[in-house]
Amino acid sequence: MQKLTSLKFMFATTAVAALASILLAYLSAQLILALNATIESRTDAISLLDDTLSMLKDCETGQRGYLLTGDPDYLQPYNDARAPLGDDLNKVDDLVNRGLIAQTDATRLHSLARERLDSLQRSIDMRTAGDVNGAVDLLNSNQGKQIMDQLRSLVADMVQGERSSLRAARQRSDQVTRWRSWTYAGLCMGVLAILASAFGRIRREMSASDAAARETQRQRDLLAVTLASIGDAVIVTDGAGRITFLNGVAEKLTGWTMAEAAGQPHAAVFRILSEDTQTPAPDPVDGVLRDGVVVGPANHTLLVGRNGAQTPIDHIGAPIRETDGAIRGVILVFRDFSEHKQAETKLKAAYESLESAGKAKDRFIATLSHELRTPLTPVLATLANWESDPNLPDNLRGQAQMLRRNVELEARLIDDLLDLTRIAKGKVPIQLETIDVHQTLEGVVTMNGSEINTRRIRVSMLLGAADHHVMADVARLQQIFWNVLKNAVKFTPEGGRITITTANDVPGQLRIQFDDNGIGMSPETLQRIFRPFEQGTLDMPRRYAGLGLGMAIAKALTDAQSGTITAASNGLGRGSTFVITFPTIAAPAPRAPHTQSSPPTPAGRPLRILLVEDHADTASVLRRLLAGQGHIVATAASVAQALALIRAEPFDILLSDIGLPDGTGIDLIRQARPAFTAPAIALTGFGMEDDVARCYDAGFNVHLTKPVNFQKLVSVIREQAQPHDPIRPAARGVPPGQ
Q1: Is the model's pLDDT at 466 over the cut of 60?
Q2: Is 33's pLDDT higher than 80?
Q3: Are residues 500 and 577 in the same domain?
Q4: Looking at CB atoms within 10 Å, which of 33, 71, 369, 726 has the fewest?
């Protein structure tokens, strides 16, 4: 009876230990998740603070370039950074609310940032007003440097604090992970040691008497069944390291049966090698018998089976002790690690495949962008030249301006369509200015006039909003209205009706509503109308042309400009309604009457320009227009022709495409430098960040993305031809003149 009670106590202890291990695993997992969330938040906070300081530096760079040159193009970094900077400062407030940043630090950061931005804006306003000396004096004053020094010091202190908290969280996470592993291993080993101890006790009782032997055998069988039922492989040895037990999993992995292994030295059955070196690994049984402590857990080990097959395993060994503390034997637990290794290998292969696919996608996008942009270059250059021609009749000048605007919009559309992921993430660049929404709507309707008239659709414009000016990007706003109107025209039958209404239903807000009596939308369509590549019902892509990107792009651009867009319909065949809202701003003061300025004339001496371009139309148009500016232009259509011309005669400017039939513009400039010291301008359809970086690294002074406004190209050529050293951009992504 006493023996039975003792056995019950052992199994009860085992059950309690098992439950305790489950509870400990759950609690430690929750703690690790919380610590990981803290680590992620601290990391985001550090990145946000670094981005805030970086954008303030970008603002300074743009301000200084503008004060020194008076060229508004240098304000591009300043304008690009202001809006995201405000968003980042708002995110700093969110970090304060979450307890990640001190309120006093956030308040001081806001104050210093506003003070610096106000100082920058004052100097820009002075330069714009013509007060060059005042602007330069303000630039040379020590006030801006003091503010930036305070900002750098403040951000450095805040980042240091976040990093200290991050290190503490990581250390705590590592401690909890190690504690969990050792606690779990200890519990498992404790349970297995209890079971093994019971097994040894049963064996001793068997020698006392036949009755005791039968009872011991029963207990032994019970323990053997228990050990055999464990999912991991189990080996038990005596105090001399000889095998006394193998469960079924251990038999399968080692290739030894229990009958064959009994009494064998453990090293003959449990042979292990280091996975990295293929040399014998430290023996866990010897370690336990020598030191009397748990050995492991360990992985990166190969178990050599009886047939020579190698199996990746992880293992742990623990001593089996008598009541007096003497070591009676060792219990060794191990398991097949093959599936884990295979999964790890597959994951690595999948990652490499994904990375390769990403690079292939980037190459495809870069090439497609180049091929789409290149034909637009001669068109845009010709239209810009027509606009600047004082002899062009006024009626044709307006048409040329309309064509130029649409070509430029097409280039913007290409950028958006080729980088939909960037738009969906809200990272599309926005250039905010005061926009008259009514004028923009009228312009969009006019641009779609041909298709509207062809389909005999009646478009009514009820522009009743008194406040119809918003702060937005004119091209992006035009693109939003274009996509919504094109959608309405596409899904409205011939002879149908479209109504465009504006109103100020809510003070400080402009509502723009597009109503049509077209095919309408089902509730299911309404749920996915703003998702990329969705286009109503499944048969719509066959009945109506398009990729289903228009509404997704419209929503992304609307969200990026603090607006909203919603869709509604009473059902199929009952038309659709799209409502766009934007915050309004005050109307700008009336401008002085516009007078047609005379076309710019070439400044300084005529330049000898080498134009390297394999697109015949682009080469022809640019050569003619540059010659019209008084320059001497030689053309080449390949790297070899360009190098031959460079060796034969001197040039003041190199203007080169990147994609050429026998190489690239990168190859050309690398072979030409350093013997060719004249400024070099890359004019190319390859406009991704890596493309820009490669151009500057190879030796180009300026990178311009096709299509480029001809007057901008002339301005960049004139700037680079100045006797001073060419201005290199502070950041690769935004070269001057871009």
Answers
A1: yes
A2: no
A3: yes
A4: 33
Same domain, 76 and 89: yes
Whether residue 220 lies inside any domain: the answer is no
Asked whether the whole model's pTM tops 0.70, one would answer no
Pairing between strand 469-472 and 509-516?
unpaired
Do residue 424 and residue 560 come from a single domain? yes
Distance, in Å, from the CA atom of 505 to the CA atom of 225, rounded to the nearest integer, reads: 79
CB 32 within 8 A of CB 38: no
**Does one domain contain both 576 and 613?**
no
| Residue span of the structural domain in which 656 resides | 340-378+604-738
Average confidence (pLDDT) over 712-732: 63
Q: Is residue 221 part of a domain?
A: no
Residue type, 390: P
- Is a pLDDT exceeding 70 seen at residue 651? yes
Residue 210 has pLDDT above 70, yes or no: no
Q: β-strand 310-321 against 295-304: which pairing, if any?
A: antiparallel
Tell me which residue of 240, 270, 239, 236 sits closest to 256, measured CA to CA.
270
At 719, list the tokens: 């700037």
Asked if 233 and 256 count as a contact pair (C-beta separation under 8 A), the reply is no
Residue written as tokens 């064998």? 264
Res. 75: pLDDT tops 50: yes
Contacts of 309 (CB under 8 A, 6+ apart): 255
Report phi then psi at 584, rounded to 5: -90, 160
Residue 675 lies in a domain: yes
Residue with tokens 């089976």: 305
Decide: 326 and 356 in contact? Cβ < 8 Å. Answer: no
- Residue type for 699, please? G
Residue 476 DSSP class = H
